[in-house]
Amino acid sequence: MQRTAIFPGSFDPFTRGHEALIHQALRLFDKVIVGIGNNPSKEGLLTVEARKRLIDDLYAGNAQVEARIYEGLTGDFAEAAGACAIIRGVRNTTDFEYERTMEATNHRLYPGIVTVMLFTPSPVADISSSTVREVLAFGRSVDEFLPRGIDICKYLSK
Q1: Are 26 and 64 in contact (CB under 8 A)?
Q2: In what order do the strands lie in the sheet with 114-119?
Q3: Which residues are catalytically annotated?
Q4: How much is the pTM?
Q5: On the chain, which terminus has fewer CB atoms closer than 10 Å, C or N?
């Protein structure tokens, strides 16, 4: 029986920290579905389709990682995907407090799905998508924050 976890987030853009968490999750699960949350009322750096394409490009040829766009409650998405777990990354105590509250809510609504909190490895724990967006807005290179080989310009709307 394949053990599937979802890793939900906005991934705007997908960073080296996200990549590190997927690497850790694959040590625990057979498959990780990257759930790209689509909030139509929010305008991001990348379209949700571009975010999916970036993740698909990064994990091309790796059947253990799949990217999907979803709307609505993460627990509903997890159930529909047949996932047994929700992966959440924790960089600091602020993340932990927020994620602990979300875990409690999800546990009440979806008792069959466990939340697994993974600590973001320290070499990339300071990287956040919002930092990447800000650095990019000032015209600086963001290559060191993104997975190797990813050129963010390829995914920006023209």
Answers
A1: yes
A2: 65-70, 31-37, 4-9, 85-90, 114-119
A3: 18, 42, 91, 129
A4: 0.94
A5: C
- Cβ atoms within 10 A of the Cβ of 141, count? 10
CA distances to 69, 74, 158 from 9, rounded to whole Å, are 10, 9, 24
- Helix, strand, coil tally for the chain in percent (to 5): 40, 20, 40
For every one of its 158 residues, what pLDDT tens digit does the chain have, with 9 covering 90 and above?
Answer: 799 999 999 999 999 999 999 999 999 999 999 999 998 777 789 999 999 999 999 999 999 999 999 999 999 999 999 999 999 999 999 989 999 999 999 999 999 999 999 999 999 999 999 999 999 999 999 999 999 999 999 999 75
CA dihedral 12, 70, 88, 73 (to 10 degrees): 130
What does 3-15 look like in DSSP terms, one character per residue?
-EEEEEE--TT--
Q: How far, in Å, CA of 145 to CA of 15, rounded?
A: 6
DSSP state of 45: S
